[in-house]
Design a protein that fits this description.
3% helix
């Protein structure tokens, strides 16, 4: 799994075989050839399994989100220094087995007030609202869901367009 920060200055790569999330800085935004290894976060010890299927960094760099496939949870870690995964501390978890037991991706709106989650078990995308932006512990399912199984099976990730008017699902 790979994630690039919204400002293009940081690259994150998760390895499910080692349970480590690696952080690289990009001296030229979005240019992988300018990457330099910086830190790593041993998430296996933090979440008690190594089956993370997706990573997301909030646009303000203060939160790290992991989905756990085949587990029914989404994890949130708060970083005391934005974009620095070694400062990931406080952890929050939401369980979503009532919707799907295999979340494989999430994507937040630019303001952190909404996120969508894709689940591989039901081939659906679900919409959530956070009453406190970026805080999954204040989130609730809106009741909105979209079946994406007709376009293909096993959806792996999802994202919003920059203006929030489009949703993309990757198989």
């Amino acid at each position: 799994m790979v994630e690039i920060s919204g400002n293009g200055n940081h690259l994150y790569v998760a390895s499910t075989s080692t349970g480590i999330l690696y952080q690289f800085d990009l001296s030229t935004p979005y240019d992988l050839s300018s990457s330099v290894y910086v830190n790593e976060f041993y998430y296996y010890s933090a979440i008690a399994n190594d089956e993370t299927s997706f990573i997301e960094i909030s646009s303000n760099g203060e939160h790290l989100y992991l989905t756990n496939d085949p587990h029914d949870q989404i994890e949130q870690f708060t970083m005391s220094t934005p974009y620095d995964i070694t400062t990931a501390g406080s952890r929050k978890t939401i369980y979503i087995s009532h919707l799907d037991v295999q979340p494989t991706g999430i994507s937040f709106s630019s303001d952190g007030q909404k996120f969508i989650m894709v689940g591989i078990n039901q081939d659906r995308v679900y919409e959530f609202v956070c009453t406190t932006p970026w805080d999954i512990s204040t989130s609730y399912w809106t009741g909105a869901r979209t079946y994406v199984g007709l376009q293909g099976t096993s959806p792996r990730s999802c994202s919003y367009s920059s203006d929030g008017t489009k949703m993309y699902v990757f198989q």
